[in-house]
Amino acid sequence: MANTGLARDLAEALGQLLLRRNRSALYDAILESAPTGVDRQTYPVLSGLARLGPQSAARLADEVGIDRSGASRYADRLEAAGLLERGPDPDDGRATLLALTPAGRAAAAGLRDALTRHLAGRIADWPDGQARALVDGIRLLVDTPPE
């Protein structure tokens, strides 16, 4: 079993990472080159659809941690910018799926590249193996089923 002190440190570090101000600082670093329609509010919708594929607004909202009405509003803005389209859900005739357009997929890929460059700069001076240990640890944390 993990050391209790180390687990407490992990809980504190994750809490800091998840603070809105830290997410916002990360967004600010990559959104400078974002296309029209992509900002702090719409980025999680764009990024979520890029990772998850077409989703209903309700499911996407659950997955990215925003309310359903926010997901719909932000989807409207992305749709107006030509980055998202709505279509019928083949599994539920009453539902609508949100999906990225080719321009939306290109925007998401460009922002993912910007994030990669930003993070590469942040970890450039870390001791050997520290960044790999962080990546491996995060993967273990999210891939391990809860007890």
Task: Name the features.
single chain, 147 residues, mainly alpha, two-stranded antiparallel sheet, 64% helix
Largest sheet: 2 strands, antiparallel
Strand order of the largest sheet: 1-2
Strand content: 5-15%
Compute the separation of the termini in Å: 13 Å
SSE succession = HHHHHEEHH
Helical residue percent? 55-70%
Q: Count the E strands.
A: 2
Radius of gyration: 18 Å
Low-confidence stretches: none
CATH architecture descriptor name of the domain at 23-122: Orthogonal Bundle
CATH superfamily of the domain at 23-122: Winged helix-like DNA-binding domain superfamily/Winged helix DNA-binding domain
Q: What is the molecular shape?
A: globular
**CATH T-level topology of the domain at 23-122:** Arc Repressor Mutant, subunit A
* Category by helix and strand content: mainly alpha
What's the overall average pLDDT, rounded? 91
Number of helices: 7
CATH class descriptor name of the domain at 23-122: Mainly Alpha
Short description:
This protein is mainly α and 147 residues long.
Write a structural description.
The longest helix is centred in the C-terminal third of the chain and has 22 residues. The two termini are 13 Å apart. This protein has seven helices and two strands, in the order H-H-H-H-H-E-E-H-H. A hairpin with a 2-residue loop joins strand 1 and strand 2. The chain is globular, with a radius of gyration of 18 Å. It has a domain of 100 residues: Arc Repressor Mutant, subunit A (Orthogonal Bundle). It has a two-stranded antiparallel sheet. The chain has 147 residues and is mainly alpha-helical.
